[in-house]
Design a protein that fits this description.
142 residues; alpha+beta; three-stranded antiparallel beta sheet; two-stranded antiparallel sheet; coiled coil
Length: 142
Amino acid sequence: MFQLKAGSAPGKLITYVGKHGNHLLTDNVNNEASKELIFSVDSATAKLDQLQSTKAKLAAENSAMKLRIEQIKSQSNVFQEELRAMDVKTLEKEQKALLADVVGETEFQQSLQNQIGELKGISQPVKCACGQEYKMGLDACV
């Protein structure tokens, strides 16, 4: 990623050859400038590696999500094709038939409730063989 070129004698210039051009550094103060430069390059390289890793993970997640979306779309398309294949008039007839069934069931339940109420009002006296007389009728437990 980078290359340092140095002369053999102290005080010579060091050329840093990098991506963004050449930079000149002096070989003084126990190579502090070169140490700082190397540290900042290493730090930037580590950050770049981390960003590339994160980018790769996000790309993989994005790809998986797109695949899931396509699967769901294909499943819904199959369902929608079945609905589209049915005629609208047929669907309307089905809906009316279902609604008529609901109305018919409601009327039937009401008529049963009315018959139960009428039967509850009927009571008859019954005489037992022992001579005791009982009154027979429907209990109001329903």
